[in-house]
Amino acid sequence: MQKDADGFITGVPEAGPAEEAASPKGANSDLINSTFEVTVTLADQQGDPNSPLYSAKTFEELGLHRDLLKGLFQMGFSKPSKIQERALPLLLSNPPTNMIGQSQSGTGKTAAFVLTMLSRVDFSKNQTQALCLAPSRELARQIMSVILVMGKFTAIQTEYAIKDHLPRGATRVTAHIVVGTAGTMIELIRKKVIDVSGIKVFVLDEADNMLDQDGLGDQTLRVKNMLPRSPTNPIQIILFSATFPDHVRNFASKFAPNANKIELRKEELNVDNIKQFYMDCRDEEHKYDILVSLYSLLTVGQSIIFCQHRHTADRISKRMTAEGHKVASLHGAKDAGERDAIIDGFRDGKDKVLITTNVIARGIDILQVNMVVNYDLPLMADRGSNKTQGDLSPDIETYIHRIGRTGRFGRKGVSINFVHDKKTWNQMETIEKAIGKKITRIETNDLEVME
Ligand code: ADP
After folding, report:
1. What is the pLDDT of residues 216-272, one digit of tens each?
2. Does the beta carbon of 408 sit less than 6 angstroms from any atom of ligand 1?
3. What is the CA 65 to chain-centroid distance, rounded?
4. Do the beta carbons of residue 307 and residue 353 sit within 8 Å?
5. DSSP secondary-structure letter at 13?
6. What is the pTM of this model?
7. Residue 105 Cα: closest atom of ligand 1
8. What is the whole-number distance in angstroms between the Cα of residue 268 and the centre of ligand 1?
9. Sign of dihedral through CA atoms 395, 134, 261, 411?
10. Could you read off the pLDDT of 44-68 as tens digits, one per residue?
11. For ligand 1, is residue 394 a contact (CB within 6 Å)?
């Protein structure tokens, strides 16, 4: 074990032999045996984060109920991933302690907090005991699907707090776990449809996004303020994300006071299994031509194409469809039912190419996605300054999340960024510097390198 510059003790996992047999179907075992370093800081300053008590090599030693173990094994989880190894003992210990946890996309954070919610629920009580918030309905639905498979052998009851889900006039939710988005959650709590008096766990997935004061922060705080405060029995607050930019770290520490913290070193933000490329296009129109010429590659597995604006996603998907290509498009302006059908079709592999916006940049876990295209680079929102696209700074966190839609759980993935002028080239260079990884040029007429 080593100490880093700040004196934090850093867990350096052993690079054990690859254990194919222990890995889930088809996934490679790199992630389970990965060597990325995390910094664990315990809320209890007396504790030793390197004590074996704080690291679980097997699910069995966590003292989980046998019905939960059954669920895990049926999912093909034979041992904890690196982040789970460190996070689960802290998440499950008593008295419950808050957690601020960071680890790259696709490393098993969702599974960790879902397992925590499930193991804290008292199934004999018909009362809501855990709330989980996510930034999009797509992500809320995905989290729910993990709860349902992992909790398959338990008596778990769940409910959504997402738009247009509850039947009109529903007056009471007694489900053990409620998962949703902040606006609908506020409404249901305010109308007393959800009774929060028995809440034990409050989880924010994509927590940096949920706490961002320029975005969802206010709503998330409103939900928290509606929860009961008991000095003797505080609610366990769990924040997870792949990114925690500096401007939300302070707020996160206030939101989840005295939390155990698992942090990634900045240079570890990207997983090496995602190859990053860029293509130098002549202009906007050329970007479209290149995308079309990539089509046969895009459909080898599944791909997600990210645009900055809804109208771009609509425009290119309509054009490609008219030209005979099969693509789906998803963004926040579509109605709830349509969004659900589109993401489900993509998840089931019915559609191979999904053209979208940042709405699904975070969290969506579809193992077959082997390519992400940044048709437009992610840019920071223009807060009324009327800057042109080219003058906006790149949004590094969103970049990391977008490319993290591929390369899930140690699989290999490719990401391609389109640049088309000096400004977009500079934006890409800023991203490259920030993430400390080379983004390799590929000629627009040379696509074989990626195969
Ligand atoms: P994150 O929330 O960090 O993005 P997820 O929890 O969604 O990651 O996990 C990524 C993928 O890896 C999912 O498909 C999940 O089912 C799988 N996975 C997670 N933990 C394990 C494990 N211990 N063993 C095998 N597969 C796992």
Report:
1. 999 999 999 999 998 888 999 999 999 898 889 999 999 999 999 998 766 566 667
2. yes
3. 26
4. no
5. -
6. 0.84
7. 4
8. 18
9. negative
10. 766 676 666 667 889 999 999 999 9
11. no
